[in-house]
Please model this.
Amino acid sequence: MSDDCILCRIAAGAVAVQLVADTPRIIGVLNTLEPFSRGHCVFFPRKHAENLLEMEDGDLAEMLIEIRDVAAKVGADSFNVLSNIGALAGQTVFHAHMHLIPKWSEHEGLVYRREPRHGLAHGEVGERVVLGRPSV
Ligand SMILES: [Zn+2]
Model:
């Protein structure tokens, strides 16, 4: 735990929150500070990890299960689940977390724009991730 990490402080019970998930591994809270929409929740592991890449497998799996279960309770037909990793991607709290953002209307929720880069070559990055066996 880090005293200057807001999510560690929440995990330690030092900050008043509205819990939506509370397991030995995962906490989920209603985002009351900067909600994008009604029912916007934030989920994170009790154990500090800077981002998803550092999370234990069990924490990561359980976090997705909690997000799924809370999403069902929220009842929105459309919603976004995301994690910003790294400052360039918009991460501002460096304790791994995922957002569940209900999309109630065109304007309430995450405003997502599809911006495909037609003709983009994946090059060396693609070679790093594509499996070496033929696809079916
Ligand atoms: Zn932390």
About this structure: Residues 6-129 form a domain with the HIT family, subunit A fold (CATH 3.30.428.10). Strands lie at 19-22, 26-30, 41-45, 79-82, 98-102. The chain has three helices and five strands.
